[in-house]
Task: inverse folding
């Protein structure tokens, strides 16, 4: 692939360092972002300037091909500055590599070969249906929660494939879902984004009507074998999504702990003999929740670093390894909800009165817990391959 590049991918600056460089701007623009319902033009421009949208894109395509753990820390850093910006960034930076990983060589050359690298977004789950010919898919659909769509160049959209009005099935019985990639001008956006938290993510709904998607510009949603060289992409759409969501939850914990520390030593609450930070109960509970943050963070960074190393060594992920992506994201969100709630409760009126950074963290965190990827009911299915792994281990120890 001979693709043009508009950002510098040379030098030793990590994604985390690039994120730290623009974090003050992201933090300063957070209130305005929440007001307009999407990242401000200043923040979008800053992310493009430092290249964060393309952190996971292969170097030969003009990206950074950054280590997964570095990307996790960059998402965390931006989310700590503003969770909405962190959420949009993770949606865009993971979404931008999905068509690169799974679309045809010709489609990739078209999408990524222009004078500027593209930004992708969209709802990749099935929101519509299409019929297939030898050359194209044609279909329509209604899509919700297209995070980061308002500044994206291409949109992804999942569609069921229908054969004579009957849903096509994969060999395992699950429905065929093709993720279709189209220029953003093919979509009709609904801009009435009005929610409790994550208000600045631009997670608008959009419609597609009788769109035509050429062969090569769509791929199976459950695909886990990338067509490109970098084997990290073999974690698939689910692995990328889990990683991004986890990074945002880590950032919310980090910011909440920072905010409650500032509040705890800034003033004395009514009926307290000294500032909150000097109270024994607060110190005990803070230490507990701060440990929970670090435990969740270390689990996450180790999981994705080990996964990348395993894939790049030429191995294929086992079902248990894939299950741990979802296990991790659900676990981290449960921990994060408890940590943020503790900080918010201890913040008193400073967390209650708007505008409040800690209050926004509370709203954003509990908005994040509503995503389907972190629904705890999935744990019962996640446990099956993980239990199989433990049963094999136990049988080996016993000699059975």
Result:
């Amino acid at each position: 692939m001979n693709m043009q590049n508009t950002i510098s991918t040379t030098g030793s600056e990590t994604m985390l360092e690039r994120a730290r460089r623009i974090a003050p701007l992201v933090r300063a623009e957070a209130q305005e972002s929440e007001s307009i319902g999407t990242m401000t033009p200043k923040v979008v421009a800053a992310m493009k300037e430092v290249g964060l949208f393309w952190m996971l894109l292969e170097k030969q395509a003009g990206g950074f091909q950054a280590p997964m753990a570095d990307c996790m820390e960059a998402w965390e850093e931006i989310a700590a500055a503003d969770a909405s910006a962190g959420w949009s960034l993770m949606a865009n930076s993971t979404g931008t590599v999905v068509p690169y990983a799974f679309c045809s060589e010709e489609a990739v050359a078209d999408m990524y070969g222009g004078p500027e690298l593209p930004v992708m977004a969209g709802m990749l789950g099935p929101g519509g249906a299409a019929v297939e010919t030898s050359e194209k898919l044609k279909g329509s659909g209604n899509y919700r929660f297209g995070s980061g769509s308002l500044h994206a160049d291409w949109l992804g959209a999942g569609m069921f494939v229908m054969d004579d009005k009957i849903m096509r099935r994969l060999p395992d019985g699950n429905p065929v879902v093709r993720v279709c990639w189209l220029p953003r001008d093919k979509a009709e956006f609904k801009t009435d984004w009005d929610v409790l938290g994550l208000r600045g993510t631009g997670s608008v709904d959009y419609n597609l009507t009788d769109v035509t998607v050429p062969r090569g510009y769509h791929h199976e949603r459950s695909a886990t074998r990338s067509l490109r060289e970098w084997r990290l992409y073999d974690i698939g759409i689910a692995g990328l999504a889990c990683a991004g969501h986890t990074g945002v939850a880590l950032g919310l914990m980090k910011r909440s702990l920072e905010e409650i520390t500032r509040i705890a030593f800034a003033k004395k609450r009514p009926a307290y003999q000294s500032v909150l930070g000097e109270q024994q109960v607060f110190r005990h509970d803070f230490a507990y929740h701060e440990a929970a943050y670090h435990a969740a963070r270390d689990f996450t960074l180790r999981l994705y670093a080990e996964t990348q190393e395993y894939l790049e060594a030429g191995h294929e992920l086992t079902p248990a390894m894939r299950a741990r992506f979802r296990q991790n994201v659900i676990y981290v969100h449960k921990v994060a909800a408890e940590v943020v709630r503790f900080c918010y409760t201890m913040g008193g009126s400073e967390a209650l009165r708007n505008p409040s950074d800690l209050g926004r963290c509370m709203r954003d965190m509990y908005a994040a817990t509503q995503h389907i990827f972190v629904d705890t009911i999935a744990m019962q299915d996640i446990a099956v391959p993980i239990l199989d792994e433990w049963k094999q281990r136990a049988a080996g120890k016993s000699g059975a």
About this structure: Residues 154 and 201 are 17 Å apart (CA to CA). The chain has 13 helices and eight strands. The mean pLDDT is 95.
